[in-house]
Structure formats: C-alpha cells, structure tokens
Amino acid sequence: QVQLVESGGGLVQAGGSLRLSCAASGRTDRTFAMGWFRQAPGKEREFVAALSWSGSNYDYADSVKGRFTISRDDTKNTVNLQMNSLKHEDTAVYYCAAGRTWFQRRLGSAYDYWGQGTQVTVSS
Q1: Which residues touch 119 (CB under 8 Å, ≥6 apart)?
Q2: Rounded to whole angstroms, how far apart are CA atoms 70 and 109?
C-alpha cells in the first residue's frame, strides 16, 4: 500500500504560480512512476506530468510543457509540481498518483494509488 497526500492548492490570479506537493508513504519501494493528473468540472481527468521514481525520466502534457515542472524531494519523500504562468484553463482538481510502471504513464489506469486531490483555481 502507498498513501499519497496532496497539498498546496489554492486561488491564484492568471500569470501567477503555485507549488503542489504530494507526500508519499508506505511501500514506495515498489513505485516506479509518480504522476499528476487534473480534472476540471464537466471534463474527463487528464494527464499533466509524470516522473520516474529514479528521477531520471520526465514527461509533460503539451498544454503545460514549459510552464510546469515536476520534481522529487528525496529527503521528504515528496513529489512536487511547480506551476508557473498559470492560465484560467488550468483550473481543476489536481491528483497525485503512484504506479508500478513507467510505461503508459499518461493513462490513469496505469496508476495503483491516488491522493484525495487538491483544488487549483486560476482567476482570469
């Protein structure tokens, strides 16, 4: 079992920044990928970014590439999502997820564990 707890969401103006954190605990030794997904009202959940547990591989959705950065803090066992130049369309509930494979990392079905989500609201 892996437990994930997100934090750092909130309300920000367009063009601003937020930093989300995902604290992982439990059997993280079996985790090979950490991902961030988001779901806006009335829309399907979508992939945002992923990081291999080793920290050597990254992947970003085209819509956030160049604005968002995913990283891992080994000392705190957290995975962070730095979000800059936020747009109104970034408004969503953001979820952290842990999976056992790097392959198919853009698919939610590839992840075994999910956090409870944190709301990000970007005012235009």
Answers
A1: 9, 10, 93, 94
A2: 20
Question: What is the pLDDT confidence band of residue 32, given thresholds at 50, 70 and 90?
Answer: confident
d(C-alpha 121, C-alpha 102), whole Å: 29
**Residues 43-92: tens digit of each pLDDT:** 999 999 999 988 889 999 999 999 999 999 888 889 999 999 999 999 99
Give the 3-state secondary structure of residue 56.
coil
Residue 18: burial class (beta carbons within 10 Å; 0-12, 13-18, 19+): buried
- DSSP, collapsed to helix, strand or coil, labels residue 3 as strand
**Residues in CB range of 62: below 8 A, 6 or more apart:** none
